[in-house]
Write a structure and sequence with these properties.
With 300 residues, the protein is α/β, with parallel strands linked by helices. Helices cover 30% and strands 15% of the residues.
């Protein structure tokens, strides 16, 4: 008889999306031995996921588990990656090892979603290649903010069309010269928009995890807040300055609030001032110069 597990995760969507790694690895390690369901603020992440079975918490055979990833606290010393976090915690709970099959989280678009017109087509009638840019941050992590995205957009004008995304309740200042999709997509529509994008520019965020799931190019403006090995995914270029500042000599500083940062230049965290817009532009261009992407130019 299969063991029934409801995995609960009340964290942010990017953290919840990363939990798909543990669920997949559990089922691939022990096929047919478990039934799994989830409870989270963003159940849309698990739509079409073949490893999810609806379960009733009132069923006496169902066990619920609040999922966490405590290995983050030792990631800097041991080089752990986020994709190991939920898996190791779940393995400790069930008392059995769980094989690690991939770093990639999982998003499943069904047949109808794959044939939807991209949300940028619906909103703007735009059908040419584009990059997503998430130029904002959540209010609880303002230290992730990068202050010079407009210069990136301006430098690539006529070469790359950016589509700006961002949750309507978060801090996403408007950029000029972009197609504005801020607050205009739900999660599934954001997945669809991302699936058609050539790449994405963003800080460490949900958008980065979405692109990792889709094996898409992604330039991550990371600064020195978080551990590089904890967050770095295949296909992505991680622009970081860990080790360059006295406040982040080994791992990241892991601070989140403006008032927590004691190393600022003109009010901006020093780690972000060390990253020039051209660093981001060069990272984008490398995908074309290296042959991963083909230059076609922007329509606008």
């Amino acid at each position: 008889m299969e063991k029934k597990l409801i995995l609960k995760n009340r964290l942010s969507p990017g953290d919840v999306l990363m939990m798909t790694v543990a669920i997949r690895d559990l089922h691939k390690t022990y096929p047919g031995e478990y039934l799994t369901d989830v409870r989270s603020p963003c159940p849309e992440i698990f739509e079409n996921n073949p490893y999810i079975t609806p379960l009733d918490e009132k069923d006496p055979d169902v066990e619920s588990l609040d999922m966490m990833y405590p290995i983050i606290h030792e990631s800097g010393l041991k080089g752990c990656h986020f994709s190991q976090g939920h898996r190791k915690y779940l393995a400790e709970h069930i008392g059995k090892s769980i094989d690690h099959f991939s770093m990639r989280p999982e998003i499943y678009l069904n047949g109808n979603e794959q044939t939807w017109p991209s949300p940028v087509v619906v909103e703007h009638g735009y059908t040419d290649p584009y990059w997503i840019i998430n130029a904002g941050v959540k209010s609880d992590y303002p230290l992730k903010y990068y202050h010079r995205y407009q210069e990136v957009v301006d430098e690539l004008k006529g070469k790359i069309q950016f589509v700006q995304v961002g949750h309507k309740s978060h801090n996403h200042p408007a950029l000029d010269g972009v197609l504005d999709m801020r607050g205009k997509t739900n999660l599934r529509q954001l997945f669809r928009l991302s699936s058609d994008a050539e790449g994405s520019v963003n800080v460490v965020s949900l958008q980065m995890v979405i692109m990792a799931a889709m094996s898409k190019p992604c330039v991550v403006v990371a600064g020195a807040r978080e551990g590089v090995r904890w967050q770095l995914y295949p296909d992505q270029q991680f622009i970081y300055v860990n080790g360059c500042l006295p406040c982040a000599t080994w791992d990241g500083c892991w601070k989140s609030k403006e008032e927590d940062c004691t190393n600022k230049i003109d009010g901006v965290p020093a780690c972000m001032t060390l990253i020039e817009p051209h660093d981001i532009v060069r990272s984008i261009n490398r995908y074309y110069d290296g042959g991963r992407l083909t230059r076609r130019g922007a329509a606008q």
